Amino acid sequence: MSSNELQKKFREFPLSVRVAQRSWITAVAIPLLLIRVIAKMKIPWVAQSIFGVSGLFALIGYVSTCWVLVRYPYIGMVDSSDGDLYSKYVGPLGRVPKILGTCAVVCLCIALIALSQKGKLTGIEILWILYCGSTLLFLLFILLRFNRLDHPAVATLLRCTLGFGIPLFPLFVPAVLVGAQRAKRLLDEAQEQIR
Hints:
Elements: H1 3-6, H2 15-33, H3 35-40, H4 44-71, H5 85-90, H6 96-116, H7 123-144, H8 152-161, H9 169-194
Helix pairs in contact: 2-4, 4-8, 4-9, 6-7, 8-9
């Protein structure tokens, strides 16, 4: 048996995984591909509608990713043999995500230092510091400690969002925590059945 025969086809993955990936890529692609059209728009509601459609796809991606994290937290451990956008495009990038992650860590550190040097902070600035701090910790975790077999819920988050979920990580914290606990319980039960 070859390694491709052992891998599951992406069309056999749960529908919610496929919807999550396609929704995130569509939510990002719509504004990127239509940026010239949006810039030339004289009618503001057309541009707002385009961003609204993109936001709707992002919302669908968010909800389906949360569902996948809670229902199938181990899906990040499964390799696909075809059609998986994460395996095709994000996985083979090699060092590029690490370099981009390091740049993001530096930018977040600068933002945190700049915000913390102000005297009196407003509520929004405190929320921004908390957001930047949690995203910074998550990025450092991914850069330094992450292994998809040891952290299946995080691997599932990265696979479903194609990495776009990294800056939105604070929104995914509850689903990741529930998914991590569920994945641990399911994997422990599977180990017990093997014995």
